[in-house]
Amino acid sequence: MNHGAATAALERAVEISHELAAVAEGGDVLLAVSLDAERLLLLKSFRLGRKQPNAGELALLREISQLNDRAIGSMEHRLRSKGRAMDMAAVGRRAVAAYSNNRQR
């Protein structure tokens, strides 16, 4: 892969990283996984084409890293939120079960 193609792959990986961060905020896990796989292929092809990235490419790699951190943070937040909701549902089920066992007859 020539220098231009490697840089184009990296630029596309940045675009996908922006999409991925937005998708992660929305909670679409399947699309996020698909975008991440596509981005990984682009990053691998960039790495094969460029052994020593220049300053501009390093800046793009930093941007990808920051966007990736944001996407992971969004997904972790959603996971914790779902966990709390499941815990509250379990508390509610236990309360209903306890109440139904103690009703006046």
Show the helix and strand layout.
Elements lengths: L2 H24 L2 H21 L5 H47 L4
Helix pairs in contact: 1-2, 1-3
Verbal overview:
The chain is mainly alpha-helical. The chain is 88% helix and 0% strand. The chain has helices at 3-26, 29-49, 55-101. The N and C termini lie far apart (80 Å). The model has no long low-confidence stretch (mean pLDDT 89).
> By helix and strand content, what is the structural category?
mainly alpha
What is the chain-wise order of helices and strands? HHH
Strand coverage percent: under 5%
Termini Cα gap: 80 Å
Can you count the helices? 3
- Uncertain stretches of 5 or more adjacent residues: none
Helix content: over 70%
- Total strand count, please? 0
Largest sheet report: none
Mean pLDDT: 89
Instruction: Write down the overall geometry.
Output: rod-shaped
- Provide the gyration radius in Å: 22 Å
Concise summary:
By secondary structure, this protein is an all-alpha fold.
List keywords for this structure.
mainly alpha; 3 helices; 88% helix; rod-shaped
